[in-house]
Design brief:
365 residues; 26 strands; alpha+beta
C-alpha cells in the first residue's frame, strides 16, 4: 500500500473512526484501525458492538490494506504539521511520513480483523442538528445499570413521517418527537439503541443529513462519507406514551434559563440526593433546598400558575435534566399532586409539545 493524503483530511478521518475503538479491547486486533487504499482511503473500526467506517480522498499509488494501532495513529495525525502525509507499508510496518517527520507503526494481521456488519437499508433521513438535539434531550433519562440492558437504551419508533425517541430509568421518562423524510410514507419500525453509542453517533454526525436504517439486530447511521452501525438491545420497552398523556389539573409556566440558574444556586447547599422543594402560588414559585449541616437556600421568581397552589419536591438533577431539554423560552410544568410525578414540556402555543419529560416527585416536602 502506498498513498498520499492531506494532513487535515487524514486527521479528521482518523479521529472520527477512532471514536469506535474500545477502551479495553477483548482481543488486540480490535484496538486497530483498518486502512484500505483503493480509489480513496477507507478507515474502519469495530468492537463487535459498534462499527465506524469513513472514506477520505487520497492519491493512491499502490492499493492495499493495513491494520495499525488506532489510538496511536490518532495521536500522531493530530500532532502533524500542515503538510501532505504519505503512508507506505513496508514489511511488518506502516511508515507514515510528513515533511521531515517519520513514524513506523507495527501492523497486525489484517485477516484477524472482524468483518463489519453491512449497513441496513435506509428508512429515512433527518438533519444532523435535529437528530443530535433529540438524542441529547432523551439520553439523560437512560439508566446506567447494565443489569437492566433495556433501560440503558433509547427507543426509536418510526411511523411514516414521524420519529419518536424515548428513554427511561424507571424514575423518569423523556420523549422527543420529530418529522423526517421517510423512504416510504407507510414505513414503520421500532428498535432500542444503546444510549452511549447513540450519543457518540449523534455528536459525530451533527454536521449534515443523517440517514437511518434498522436491520436484523443492527441500526445504521450514515452521513456523507461516514457510516456507523450499532448492535441493538432487546426491543422490549415500557408503554411510555400512556404515561405522558394523563390529565394535569395544575400547570405552571416558568422562564427556563432563570429557573435553571435559581435551582443550581439554591442547590449549592443541598446534600447529595436531597430534594429541591418548589412552592407554586399564583404569580410566584418559591425554590428551597438544604436545612441540614451545610446550610439552606431559597429564591423566588415569577410564574404563571393555572390551578391550585401546590408544594412539590424533586431530585435536583432529575429536574435540571428535564428543564435542560426544553428549547423554548418557557417551560410548562404539569402537576396533579405533591406525591405524583410531574410532566415538563415546552410551551409551543396550541401545538402538541415535541419534547415531554416525566419525573417522579419526592414525597417529603
Amino acid at each position: 500500500m502506498k498513498l498520499r493524503v492531506n494532513r487535515d483530511v487524514l486527521a479528521d478521518a482518523v479521529a472520527w473512526s477512532a471514536r469506535a475503538l474500545p477502551s479495553r479491547p477483548a482481543v488486540p486486533v480490535l484496538a486497530g484501525l483498518l486502512l484500505e487504499a483503493g480509489d480513496d482511503i477507507v478507515l474502519s473500526a469495530f468492537d463487535y458492538e459498534v462499527s465506524a467506517r469513513v472514506s477520505a480522498e487520497a492519491d493512491v499509488a499502490e492499493p492495499g490494506r493495513a491494520l495499525v494501532p488506532g489510538r496511536v495513529l490518532a495521536e500522531i495525525t493530530r500532532s502533524l504539521p500542515a503538510q501532505p502525509v504519505e503512508i507506505v507499508t513496508s514489511g511488518a510496518e506502516a511508515v507514515l511520513t510528513c515533511g521531515s517527520i517519520e513514524f513506523g507503526l507495527p501492523t497486525m494481521p489484517v485477516e484477524d480483523f472482524p468483518v463489519l456488519p453491512p449497513t441496513p437499508a435506509r428508512l429515512g433521513a433527518i438533519g444532523g442538528g435535529v437528530f443530535a438535539t433529540a438524542v441529547g434531550q432523551v439520553a439523560p433519562a437512560t439508566s446506567r445499570d447494565e443489569a437492566l440492558p433495556m433501560l440503558t437504551g433509547v427507543r426509536i419508533d418510526i411511523a411514516g413521517e414521524t420519529v419518536t425517541m424515548a428513554a427511561t430509568d424507571r424514575y423518569r421518562i423523556a420523549a422527543r418527537e420529530f418529522d423526517w423524510r421517510p423512504e416510504r410514507p407507510d414505513a414503520t419500525a421500532a428498535a432500542v439503541v444503546p444510549a452511549r453509542a447513540l450519543v457518540e453517533v449523534a455528536k459525530s454526525l451533527r454536521g449534515g443529513e443523517v440517514s437511518i436504517g434498522l436491520g436484523d439486530g443492527v441500526a445504521g447511521f450514515e452521513s456523507v462519507d461516514r457510516s456507523t452501525t450499532v448492535r441493538l438491545l432487546d426491543e422490549q420497552f415500557i408503554d411510555y406514551r400512556s404515561r405522558l398523556t394523563e390529565d394535569w389539573p395544575i400547570r405552571a409556566d416558568v422562564r427556563v434559563a432563570p429557573f435553571i440558574e435559581a435551582i443550581r444556586r439554591v442547590g449549592l447547599v443541598a446534600e447529595r440526593n436531597t430534594a429541591i422543594r418548589l412552592s407554586f402560588d399564583h404569580g410566584q414559585v418559591f425554590i428551597q433546598a438544604g436545612g441540614g449541616e451545610i446550610g439552606r437556600g431559597a429564591e423566588s421568581m415569577d410564574v404563571e400558575l393555572s390551578g391550585d397552589a401546590i408544594q412539590i419536591a424533586f431530585q435536583a438533577h432529575f429536574l435540571l435534566d428535564g428543564l435542560s431539554g426544553v428549547e423554548t423560552e418557557f417551560a410548562r410544568i404539569h402537576m396533579q399532586s405533591s406525591s405524583r410525578p410531574a410532566l415538563i414540556t415546552e410551551v409551543p402555543g396550541d401545538a402538541d409539545p415535541a419534547f415531554r419529560y416525566l419525573t417522579m416527585s419526592l414525597r417529603a416536602v
